[in-house]
Amino acid sequence: MRDSGCGLALLAEGSQAGLDRLTRGEVAIAAIHLHATPDDDAANPAAIRAEPGLFDAVVIGFARREQGLLMAPGNPLALAGIASAVEKRARFARRQQGAGAQLLLTSLMARDDVPDGRMVMAEGVCATGQDLALAIRTGRADCGIASRAIAAAFGLDFLPLVWEHVDLVMRRRTYFEPATQTLLAWMRRPDMAARARELGGYDLARSGEVRLNR
Hints:
Elements: H1 15-24, E1 29-32, H2 43-49, E2 57-71, H3 82-87, E3 91-92, H4 100-111, E4 120-121, H5 129-137, E5 143-147, H6 148-153, E6 157-171, H7 172-175, H8 178-187, H9 190-199, E7 202-203, E8 210-213
Parallel strand pairs: 3-4
Antiparallel strand pairs: 1-6, 2-5, 2-6, 2-7, 2-8
């Protein structure tokens, strides 16, 4: 957002909270990564279709990104996945209810048939992926779900689990506003591709694609 110069401010609250604010008219755009199943490419558009308050919504692809299990450097607990972490009583850093990463964790547990009652949760709730990584880095938690880019930025070990769509949801009238057009234009420039390579774990093949137009 900063690099694009679009002038839009950011509020990090999680995917569902963003959609709720968009429905109430409190934000211009919601960035979402929802999950019905871990590998469901249609989860974001399906959620918008099911929301009657977003009858005039447009869903624009931002990027696909790699999500996985973040662990302390060197993976001292020798975690091999979600089931392994639960079995070894590793402390999971958690995101707020409705955050895409938390929805993904729930889906992964269901896929691996892991009872959620056996999971050990670290103290507190992490508002962002960066907060989750910091909890692991400082020893408050042993593992958690976030992107490869976050793991690299904080020097954490990363076990890849799934690729997901991050999409931008807005009302049709917002699509044509100058700030939105500035952001979308930046997404087509080499700057975004360079930034994605720098961060790692991003695929821009469908960036800018209209994934739903209600």
